[in-house]
Write a structure and sequence with these properties.
The structure holds 3 protein chains of 3 kinds. By secondary structure, chain B is mostly beta strands. Chain B has 2 helices and 8 strands. Chain B folds into 2 domains: 48 residues; 81 residues, OB fold (Dihydrolipoamide Acetyltransferase, E2P), CATH 2.40.50. In chain C, the strands form 3 sheets. Chain C has a 9-stranded mixed sheet with strand order 5-4-6-7-1-8-13-12-11, with helices on both faces. Chain C folds into 2 domains: 189 residues, Peroxisomal Thiolase, Chain A, domain 1; 138 residues, Thiolase/Chalcone synthase (Peroxisomal Thiolase, Chain A, domain 1). The chains are: A alpha/beta, B mainly beta, C alpha/beta. At the A-B interface, helix 6 and strand 5 of A face strand 4, strand 5, strand 6 and strand 8 of B.
Chain lengths: 383, 129, 348
């Protein structure tokens, strides 16, 4: 495989975008990425989206977006891996460039969630319909089951979970593209409306619209454009049982562990080399568990680490979710994995504004689907 | 209409029918075509015991539209005596008194309805004993 | 001899007090409670219906009978609240309990006597030698219009009886049915709640049919009320069964064990069957039981049972009716009750 570089990025603001259709959002993000990269064409494109069929009754997004982006007859493919759709879209683009099949590939992601669909029901399609969802469980509910198990097993506290939300809102307040640019207090999180015990409204990522896109290019193209800076050091993906109950442990995400091992090996890095990480905090407990399974902290210590500021922008030994994460930046499902890459791209380029981490050189993005049945991890390195 | 899809799962939902691998005795619920342990492809049908322990749970307070009139309700992961784990509602529960490790028994209840005029869908729920 | 080889009853956990309903409609709670001799009634959980109640009762009956479910040749469920207008309740039940598919099933409806109807047909099949075992079930999540007198009593529960020839816990010695066209209570197709003829449901309906069947049963059996340890009648409220028992010559003591209505309400098709289950829970070998049901429309089924030595072996194999009635109760207020019973108009 040959090296691949991220040479351009673009995204819409995340939030309730009442005037934007799914195609408008995607095209906006894609044009920004193309313009940022300064390329005059692309060879192929991927559109990550979890469930446009349920959210807006529109499938066949590859062709639709190619059409509205004005690039037909270029190959365009819709990829789906639940909430990891964006990350997998990026991985497909990476593999296509790394394999030598294409030189310039657009990896995008999009979701339009506010057009009136039963969002809880649509998101639940990422779980086992017949043996989980049939019984009325929701996604917050599944993560709540994990949270309670984590609390039971390791003594993780309600306050520690809340610390994740407080931190991510603080980071998000510095991100102009974030859905929520407001800080929240520990008290507000702990007192917010109960959604699925013990998870409350402010433990949950919001319902969002948005799109994000990046351009992945070969070394030759990157060099020619003077953009040979952000290299994809690793791309790894893993799967796990779809149903949470089929796993031996409710507090370890095996797909995250497996993908992380592969990613670290491919990049020749270890967890302590990672300076910034965008992780899939669809719920506060997810960030806690993932920060353990990525090897940043010992198993069971993720909550404590967050509460002690070990993941914060200000005092962190590893800065987690500098963008605000899914929690504060928003979670238009299919766009999330790409938006994570964009945050790393901006940080590694020193263009993250108020939330810039000094001398950021190595960043990791962890994007997962369902209760962690899919996990895709990328490591980007600034040269 | 979910009739065929529902009917297909009746042996599992009504009677807890599972498959036991002829090669390594791993039990799968629902039955699978490939054993997740040894990749075996020959199975016998067994019926799971309807008692177990509550491993973890939540109280769903915001449900999907289909379940929104029944909230709050408890859903847990149960480990049955055979070692198989399932996700199920905990019926008739005192939501304040649920706890890890409680002994539960499965009962037959209505799980959902396919709209006002569609079929009624039944299956197992746990009750604390 | 043909009789009962296993029985089981099921009562939901939820209750509402008659006084709570009375207050809701501006009636005098004390007068209602006294007038109906009724303290409270059972309410089905939101996930319970005639089918789930039947399954629970039938599971207990199977436990007590200790037989292979596959040997059951027929299952009949009697109810006026079958969840489907078209589709038998028992098809779901037999698949849940591993009975069949070589089995005959049917849903019966005859207002409050559909349960004894199911029992009678099950008994007749075994007696005719058609099959080894047959199950008859009476279960209901009874309907009563909001604000109607029926709302105080219409309750939920059911009982199942497996009929056979061997290892009987109670022999069926005599039966008798008494039927006429009496429009005392009905529900037209498509209507949500039943209607009734008020006081016309008393003497011309309830009393005439139960007394008619009861007297014929005594004549047929050449027995006198004093011969019986227990008597149970359909229980639309607390007072009617006491009164009809008195008219037939039974005492309060004989009726006490089966008189569950003050704490259970009128379980329609499950009413006298649940009363019978409560009696079997405490009966001793040799006891005679007199039972007459009543279903509006109208008719009564009468049975005389003699309890056998086997009864003591099976009584503790499953929960007893009074235990279920007295423990783990969850009281609902009227709003919760209206929601549970789907009496609130919702958006589809």
């Amino acid at each position: 495989m040959r090296d691949a570089y991220v040479i351009g990025a673009g995204m819409t603001k995340f939030g309730e975008l009442w005037s934007n259709s799914i195609r408008d959002m995607f095209v906006e993000a894609a044009l920004k990425a193309i313009d940022d990269a300064g390329v005059d064409h692309i060879d192929s494109m991927y559109v990550g989206a979890m469930s446009s069929g349920l959210f807006v009754q529109q499938e066949h997004l590859g062709a639709l977006m190619a059409d509205y982006l004005g690039v037909v007859p270029m190959p365009a493919t819709h990829v789906e891996s639940a909430c990891a759709s964006g990350g997998v879209s990026f991985r497909q683009a990476f593999l296509e460039v790394a394999s030598g099949a294409s030189d310039i590939v657009l990896a995008g992601g999009v979701e339009k969630m506010t057009d009136g669909a039963d969002v809880t029901d649509a998101l639940a399609t990422a779980a086992d319909q017949e043996y989980e969802v049939y019984h009325g469980i929701t996604f917050p509910g599944l993560y709540a089951i994990m949270a309670r198990a984590h609390m039971q097993e390791f003594g993780t506290t309600r306050e520690q979970l809340a610390a994740v939300a407080v931190k991510n809102h603080r980071n998000g307040s510095k991100n102009p593209n974030a859905q929520f640019r407001s800080e929240v207090t520990l008290e507000q999180v702990i007192r917010s409306t109960m959604v699925a015990d013990p998870l409350r409204l402010l433990d949950c990522s919001p319902v969002s619209d948005g799109a994000a896109a990046v351009i992945v290019a070969s070394e030759a193209v990157a060099k020619k454009l003077g953009k040979q800076r952000i290299r994809v050091a690793a791309s790894a993906q893993a799967s796990d049982t779809l149903a949470l109950h089929s796993r031996k442990s409710l507090t370890t995400l095996n797909a995250v562990v497996a993908a992380a091992q592969k990613a670290y090996k491919m990049a020749g890095k270890k967890p302590s080399d990672i300076q910034i990480a965008e992780v899939h905090d669809c719920f506060t407990i997810a960030e806690v568990i993932v920060s353990e399974d990525l090897g940043f902290f010992e198993k069971g210590k993720g909550g404590e680490a967050a509460a002690n500021g070990l993941t914060s922008l200000e005092t962190g030994k590893i800065r987690v979710n500098t963008s605000g994460g899914l929690k504060s930046k928003g979670h238009p499902v299919g766009a999330t994995g790409i938006a994570q890459i964009i945050e790393l791209y901006e940080q590694l380029n020193g263009k993250a504004g108020a939330r810039q981490v000094e001398n950021a050189r190595i960043g990791l993005a962890e994007n997962m689907g369902g209760t962690g049945a899919s996990c895709v991890i990328h490591i980007l390195e600034a040269l | 209409m979910i009739t065929a899809r529902y009917a297909r799962e009746i042996p599992q939902r009504y009677r807890l029918e599972a498959s036991r691998c002829a090669q390594c005795a791993t039990v799968s619920f629902p039955p699978r075509l490939v054993c997740p342990t040894c990749k075996g492809r020959t199975f016998s049908t067994i019926t799971l015991q309807n008692e177990g322990k509550l491993l973890s749970y939540t109280v769903v307070r915001v449900g999907s539209d289909k379940f929104s009139k029944e909230t709050p309700f408890a859903v847990g992961i149960i480990e049955l005596k055979d070692g198989i784990r399932i996700t199920t509602q905990i019926a008739d529960a005192n939501l304040e008194k649920l706890a890890h490790g409680q002994t539960v028994r499965l009962v037959f209840r209505k799980i959902q309805e396919d709209g006002k005029a569609g079929i009624l869908c039944y299956g197992y729920k746990a009750i604390v004993v | 001899m043909v009789g009962i080889v296993g029985y089981g009853a099921y009562v939901p956990r939820y209750r509402i007090k008659a006084e709570v309903i009375a207050k809701q409609w501006g009636a005098d709670p004390e007068a209602v409670t006294r007038g109906l001799s009724l303290v409270e009634k059972t309410v089905p959980g939101q996930d319970e219906d005639t089918i789930t109640i039947s399954v629970a009762a039938a599971q207990y009956a199977l436990r007590r009978a200790g037989i292979d479910p596959k040997e059951i040749g027929a299952v009949y469920v009697g109810s006026e609240s079958h969840p489907y207008a078209v589709k038998p309740s028992a098809t779901i039940l037999i698949d849940a309990l591993g009975i069949g598919p070589h089995v005959h099933v049917a849903s019966y409806e005859f207002a409050c006597k559909a349960g004894t109807e199911a029992m009678y047909v099950a008994y007749s099949h075994v007696k005719a030698g058609e099959m080894k075992y047959a199950m008859g079930i009476g279960a209901d999540t009874s309907q009563g219009a909001p604000g109607d007198a029926l709302e105080y009593t219409a309750s939920a529960g059911g009982a199942a009886f497996i009929m056979g020839r061997e290892r009987l816990v109670a022999e069926i010695l005599f039966t008798h049915s008494y039927t006429s066209d009496t429009p005392d209570f009905w529900r037209r197709e498509g209507e949500n709640y039943p209607r009734h003829g008020g006081r016309f449901t008393g003497d011309p309906a309830y009393f005439r049919h139960i007394v008619g069947a009861g007297k014929a049963l005594l004549e047929k059996s050449k027995m006198a009320p004093a011969d019986f340890k227990f008597a149970v009648f359909h229980m639309p409220n607390g007072k009617f069964p006491q009164e009809v028992g008195k008219r037939l010559g039974f005492t309060k003591d004989q009726m006490e064990a089966g008189w569950i209505v003050p704490w259970m309400g009128n379980t329609y098709s499950g009413s006298s069957p649940c009363g019978l289950a409560a009696i079997l829970d405490v009966a001793k070998p040799g006891d005679l039981i007199f039972m007459v049901s009543f279903g509006s429309g109208a008719g009564s089924d009468g049975f005389i049972y003699r309890v056998t030595d086997e009864i003591v072996k099976v009584q503790d194999r499953a929960p007893k009716l009074r235990q279920m009635l007295d423990s783990d109760k969850v009281y609902l207020d009227y709003g919760q009750y209206a929601k549970y019973r789907r009496k609130i108009k919702l958006n589809e």
